[in-house]
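Reopening this one. Same input as before:
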Amino acid sequence: MKDAIAILTGGGPAPGMNTVVGSVAKTFLNKGYRVVGLHAGYSGLFSKNARTVDIDFLLADDIFNRGGSYLQMSRFKPTDKDFEENFNLDFFTQNNIKLLVTVGGDDTASTANRIAKFLEAKKYPIANIHVPKTIDNDLPLPGGHPTFGYESALDKGATIGRTVYVDARTSGNWFVLAAMGRSAGHLAFGIGEACHYPMIVIPEMFNKTEITVEKIVNLVVSSIIKRKIMGMDYGAAIISEGVFHELSDAEIKKSGINFSYDDHGHPELGKVSKAHIFNEMLEKKLKELGLKVKSRPVEIGYEVRCNTPVAYDLVYCSELGMGVYKLFKEGYTGCMVFVDGAGSVVNLSLKDLQDPETGKIPPRLVNINTDSFKAVIDNILCYITPDDYEAAKKYVNDPAAYDFNKILNW
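Same output, byte for byte:
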């Protein structure tokens, strides 16, 4: 029987998924392997009725530059019991699978690490290589290298963000945007910087104080007042959805939201409009202050996940897909594939990346100590400082309550 590889996609989609799958398939097909695609993520490995598809060169060529994922994705997370009782070893033996390729983000990578350990402990001769993706850009790749999907999502998000900002200027009002980013604010910050938004709020900014609903709202109000002082009656603020992950239970209750949770224990933020929630809280505050400001919510979420990948991701994902074969032939397993800025294919051990206590791969946060971050804060954002207190008294009785640095305790 011909040697084969299996490939699955897990988590949520990111531009470049099909590019990776197509590139992996083309490379291994050229080397004489059969390529089996698994639908529904990891669930196929823990079911006797896995949905599979043979990926030939024609199919790989048809999908490689498309958005979305041809292989249906899933957030299924196997339990320890699943590993002991439901692991579908027959799928591997009956199809002569020599390599499992997993494509996904931090949760998919963490499960890939568990599978690598399981296969090693059971002495099953199946290699496992993970291809890291996420539009959140929060996997700890070396040298700050972006995860695939981020650049395409940022490009699409910035297109929406620019249009919204033009609308704000044209109509003389404010927009409140919420951007995806469960643990880190890379996407929100990137869009805000690209569009020169006067206020950006990401969880990393609250490094010296607890995140509260009031502080988030007051940061936006600070920007609105500053722009009024500057003679500008319009603007836009972008907030990372990740702030919800850092809010205490009491603060989440204060926001009025009842979240459901996914298999990994994360609030299912995609089920509610964070922009709508933020905007309602802002409107309530503005009404209390007697400030006549029109604001409108805009959500940047699912719109950026399945768009066609930009050239950066088409190139990078192709290199990652071809890099999988190189690592496999060199005998690597239980690792992530990475292609550095010099074009070298590098293996990143999942074991080395994981937290020794939780077994999870910790997220890469926005580094707020860089010159580029500080430059955006100092030169693009608009907010109240002590120099504005006198002018701000025209709009609020206590300007210090809306002082950007005081709110963040910077």
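So the earlier flakiness isn't reproducible anymore. For the record, The chain is about 40% helix and 15% strand.
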